[in-house]
Design a protein that fits this description.
heterodimer, A: alpha+beta, six-stranded mixed sheet, four-stranded antiparallel sheet, B: alpha/beta, Rossmann fold, 10 strands
């Protein structure tokens, strides 16, 4: 019986072969995506683990020979460099991964990408920051990705002990960023556990769901013909068990071939996928791997699931020797299906009106059910909305093509909606993600000091708003002169510390954010005059009170700072919170100034332009946005494949009446209209509805949680969404030749 | 031949004089499918208002002849004339237009669009010809009483018996007032009582409207409703009753 089932699968005529190919492709795509997603999550974990050693902090343990340790985020041309300064206190000092032994004083180890950068950049812009010479290469086990810029610089214990921010570490951390939620981590790189969950949820919901629907749709292809064949076998004496076995063999064979195709697809895309910086850093191809349990679960689980699904599908029909009948006639969906989505939107609306809970857990409890209700509600309401829309079309239309299409959708709205339900979820999830990321980015990227600040390099020695973040110091006149002498540096300004001065929050129009006011220092009006982006002095003033650190969310270019009665000579003797170097924005000027500042005043915070701080702050969101774009494109393409399969199934169901209509003179354009409307209308309507509800939910969330109006996403989102929908429509259009072929006169003659 | 079922050969059009003009004609038509010849020089003429039965065993080429006459297939050799115009040299689009506007069709089964109600199925040819929906449905509903289908207007094809579905198909074939009705085994899937019912309705409606009917059947009982019978054997047409082809 198994042999007969296999023979029917591969040698059951053209229709059976087409069905087998489509099923294999659908299962292959699904398995390929599943494996890529699983390998991707494994890769994120491997990458996170490689960040762990950078989390090394001061240890309270009593190791024999602790290691002096100073981690800094250095920068070059907008790229972040992980710089670690180390100094052993004895032979047993711990050694970071990727190194055979610690660099001695005057030596440094660098990652391969860092070595290339050191070779390509002039020494006064980069290499000059690192005392000594290159002693070796850092191994991959210490690098999050192949392009990671990491450098480990060796010092004597006495040198490093005198450097602000250096700590004594008794052990190298094995504490990955994924474990950092709620705990103190030294670095902000890598992805936290919540981030991994988010990625997994987005991929699972937005990509795997459409693939599962694609597989389900492909199994419906020529289902009627297949069931008739089973009935004929029953007439010839086959038992229900034997029929069930043959159905199981057919499905399992397709699943086994699909699994093989899926593994092949995964191996094909593994290297290109690894090079995409989903987390901001590309993966090593070797990190995109599958564990043995992963492989076994997919290789055995998918065929087993296919066999069970085939058995379940047969239970829905009654196959007797006299033919096939459906066990259950589906009832039309009722109006209550609209309630969950309305309830979800109402729940979010309630918190807009009454305000959000104060605590973070309370906020999660408030928003999560709302979003989940909307997501589930969209899928639940879909068939009813499809039916309502189709019935309206039936009532209004006078065109035969529209009438047939609308009747079909109204008769079986579940099937009509099923083909696009994955797309609905994908579009909702990605719309919410992209809109909120855009809104968050806009909130974070308000110009800190107005336009043009990307060329101002700030070396923040001390931050009075944060204890233990460096100490104010008196910059030498030599340094300031050298800084001013760099070609392309147009001005130097020092923010001096003078007691506990503050500026009132009302000056910045953002009392809620700045609370009790802003810690402030003093600047010379002569220096401030070279930085029009940073405000101005009142007429006649020589010294003004100025913020001690850059203010996020406040454009200060229009402000006039209050005058301070401090003599010039006293000002010059005061220690400084920070030094600002205004440049012409050229790479040479910024990097030479940075190298000079870093080498003169090494401390925990490396000099950075305001633009760089802003970019790094928004970097993670940009990565999620990139992932969202990939999800939109992939899910739309899969939805297009599902639509094509459902069109093919629908055409096969109506081959005879359509061919009869055609030979009775019905123009092919009318039949094309039927097919196009049946598939494109649910696609476009559901896309519009899910995007609309996504915007509505995002607007409410932005109002509540981000305390600002929603900001529409940029043009890339619209281009990608429109592009994906066009691809789906193109796939639908590609099925039109099938319509021409299977409704030809020979069908009417031979069927 | 028994004409008692209502055949009344020669009564078409009332006095029989209308049955003089040729409506459609096949001249030495040849058609092969691959290496298999289906028609080998078939000749056939149908007069206006005539009910013509084409008989023959399975595989004799009778359906192929009907499809060539209707412009569904184009012959490899020979000519098809509809009135004074040659049909087989026209493009597929022109033949489709002709079939839609001048011809009606009734087949053995499976011709109703399953999504549409019975009334919408009947109105479909009118809608395809550009009629307004309400006018088309009003016109379609008039056929339900005539064909004994009252109360079934809102049923779908799956909710109709075989005989009811064939009567709906008959109404759809005639609703647009075609000059020619092609019927390919119209009672093939029906029991004898339903088959007789459908044939009575088909012939009476056609005679009432002066529609020429070309009927393909292998059942002598069905062919007996025709004014004239021809038989197709080995791809050629031979006359059985009435005027020679």
């Amino acid at each position: 019986m198994i042999r007969l089932g296999l023979r029917l699968t591969v040698n059951g005529g053209r229709e059976a072969v087409v069905r087998l190919i489509l099923l294999v492709v659908a299962v292959g795509l699904g398995v390929g995506l599943l494996l890529t997603a699983v390998a991707g999550i494994n890769a994120v974990n491997y990458q996170n683990d490689r960040y762990a050693w950078l989390n090394t902090t001061a240890s309270s343990g009593s190791a024999h020979d602790p290691l002096w340790w100073l981690l800094r985020g250095d920068r070059y041309d907008g790229q972040l460099i992980g710089r670690v300064d180390v100094a052993p206190t004895g032979a047993d000092s711990p050694v970071p991964p990727g190194l055979a032994h610690l660099p001695g004083p005057g030596q440094y180890y660098a990652s391969p990408a860092m070595i290339r950068l050191l070779h390509s950049a002039p020494a006064n812009r980069l290499a000059g920051r690192y005392p000594g010479h290159l002693a070796g290469t850092i191994g991959n086990q210490a690098l999050p990705g192949p392009n990671s810029l990491v450098i480990i610089v060796g010092h004597t214990a006495a040198q490093l002990a005198a450097t602000p921010g250096a700590v004594r570490a008794s052990a190298i951390s094995t504490f990955a960023p994924s474990s950092c939620d709620g705990k103190d981590c030294a670095i902000s790189q890598g992805i936290k556990a919540s981030g991994i969950d988010l990625i997994f949820s987005v991929v699972a919901l937005a990509m795997l769901f459409p693939v599962l629907i694609f597989i389900a749709t492909a199994t419906r292809l020529s289902a009627a013909r297949r069931e008739q064949r089973f009935a004929a076998m029953r007439l010839a004496g086959a038992t229900p068990r034997q029929v069930s076995l043959i159905a199981g063999v057919e499905s399992t064979a397709a699943a086994v071939l699909g699994v093989a195709l899926g593994f092949a697809l995964f191996l094909l895309v593994r290297v290109p996928i690894a090079s995409i910086p989903f987390t901001g850093t590309p993966f090593f191809p070797g990190d995109l791997t599958l564990s043995l349990p992963d492989v076994l679960i997919v290789a055995l689980g998918v065929p087993l699931a296919a066999a069970l699904a085939a058995r379940f599908a047969l239970r829905r029909v009654h196959i007797s020797p006299l033919g096939v009948s459906r066990r259950v006639t589906p009832k039309p969906p009722s109006a209550w299906r609209i309630l969950p989505v309305l309830a979800g939107l109402a729940e979010l609306g309630f918190f807009v009106v009454h305000g959000r809970p104060r605590s973070t857990p309370g906020q999660i409890q408030a928003f999560l059910p709302g979003f989940l209700l909307v997501m589930v509600g969209l899928v639940v309401a879909g068939p009813w909305l499809t039916m309502a829309g189709a019935r309206l079309m039936v009532r209004l239309t006078g065109r035969p093509g529209t009438l047939i299409a609308a009747r079909r959708l109204a008769d079986n709205p579940r099937a009509g909606f099923r083909a696009v339900s994955g797309l609905v979820l994908a579009l909702f999830v990605t719309t919410v993600a992209v809109v909120l990321i855009t809104t968050q980015n806009t909130k974070g990227s308000d110009p800190a000091y107005g336009p043009g600040t990307g060329s101002i390099l700030v070396d923040q020695f001390a931050d009075p708003s944060s204890s233990g973040s460096g100490r104010a110091l008196v910059p030498s006149a030599t340094l300031l002169a050298q800084l001013g002498g760099i070609d392309g540096v147009q001005g130097v300004m020092t923010v001096r510390s003078d007691g506990s001065r503050r500026l009132p929050a009302s000056m910045f129009g953002n009392g809620g954010y700045l609370g009790m006011g802003v810690p402030a220092g003093l600047v010379s009006c002569a220096e401030l005059g070279r930085f029009p982006e940073l405000g101005r002095c009142p007429a006649g003033a020589a010294v003004v009170v100025f913020p001690a650190f850059p203010l996020w969310g406040a454009d200060v270019s229009h402000l006039t700072w209050p005058a301070a009665n401090v003599p010039d000579d006293r000002l010059a003797s005061l220690p400084a919170f920070s030094v600002h170097a205004g440049t012409n924005g050229s790479l040479a000027a910024i990097e030479q100034a940075r190298t000079l500042l870093e080498t003169t005043y090494p401390n925990a915070a490396s000099p950075a332009t305001l633009g760089e701080q802003q970019t790094e702050s928004n970097g993670r969101d940009a990565q999620y946005q990139q992932l969202a774009d990939v999800v939109i494109l992939a899910s739309l393409a899969i939805a297009g494949c599902t639509l094509a399969a459902s069109i093919a199934a629908g055409l096969a169901d109506r081959k005879r009446p359509f061919s009869m209509l055609r030979l009775a003179g019905t123009p092919l354009t009318v039949l094309r209209r039927v097919v196009a409307l049946e598939s494109a209308v649910p696609l476009l309507v559901s896309a519009a509805v899910s995007i609309g509800i996504g915007f509505a939910a995002s607007a409410m969330y932005a109002t509540m949680q981000l305390e600002r109006p929603m900001v529409a996403p940029d043009v890339v989102y619209y281009l990608i969404t429109a592009g994906g929908i066009l691809i789906s429509l193109g796939i639908i259009a590609a099925t039109m030749p099938l319509l021409n072929r299977i409704t030809g006169p020979e069908v009417a003659r031979n069927e | 031949m028994d004409r008692s079922h209502g055949g009344q050969a020669g009564d078409a059009g009332g006095d029989g004089t209308q049955m003089t003009a040729t409506v459609i004609e096949a001249r030495a038509v040849e058609k092969s499918f691959g290496q298999t010849p289906a028609l080998r020089g078939a000749n056939l003429t149908a007069k206006r208002g005539e009910i013509l039965a084409i008989m023959g065993p399975s595989g004799s080429g009778k359906s192929t002849l009907l499809h060539c006459l209707a412009g569904i297939l184009t012959p490899d050799q020979g000519e098809i004339w509809f009135g004074s115009a040659r049909l087989d040299t026209r493009s597929e689009a022109q033949r489709s237009e002709l079939r839609r506007e001048k011809f009606g069709f009734v087949f053995q089964f499976g011709q109703l669009v399953p999504e549409l109600t019975a009334a919408e199925n009947v109105a479909l040819p009118l809608l395809l010809n550009g009629a307004r929906r309400n006018a088309a449905l009003t016109e379609a509903r008039q056929w339900f009483g005539r064909l004994g289908l009252d109360g079934l207007e809102h049923r779908r094809s799956g909710e109709l018996s075989g005989g009811q579905a064939q009567r709906v198909a008959l109404a759809r074939g005639l609703v647009a007032g075609p000059e020619l009705l092609f019927a390919d085994e119209p009672t093939g899937s029906l029991d004898s009582v339903s088959g007789e019912h459908v044939m009575n309705l088909l012939t009476s409606a056609a005679r009432e409207r002066g529609t020429t009917v070309i009927l393909v059947t292998h059942e002598p009982r069905v062919a007996a409703y025709a004014d004239r019978e021809v038989v197709v054997r080995d791809g050629k047409v031979a006359s059985l009753t009435g005027v020679a082809p």
